[in-house]
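Researcher: Go.
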Amino acid sequence: MTTFDDRERAFETKFAMDEDMAFRVTARRNRLLGQWAAARMGLTPEETDAYAKAVVQADFEEAGDEDVIRKIVGDLTAASVEIDEATVRQALDDQMVEARRQLMEAK
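Model: Structure:
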């Protein structure tokens, strides 16, 4: 039974590591997306940092990406930046790739 127990522990450990990495990638993606949106709104570096943190926090409102997309589109529209949801979704995808790249390089 020891071999079976060892395999089970190994799978549990791998699952935990994968979940942790997925969380970190999503948080990094949201921060990068916040920086992307802040640049379009013309925010200062201090405002950009605060806004990026607010975007990361917005992701905890509900499961999925809709809360983040809704925040970005709403904030850009309020700042008189013409943007559509498709553009924000594309930026979200682009930032996901960048976030993964950054985290893989950091290892």
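Model: Helices lie at 2-41, 45-58, 66-78, 85-106.
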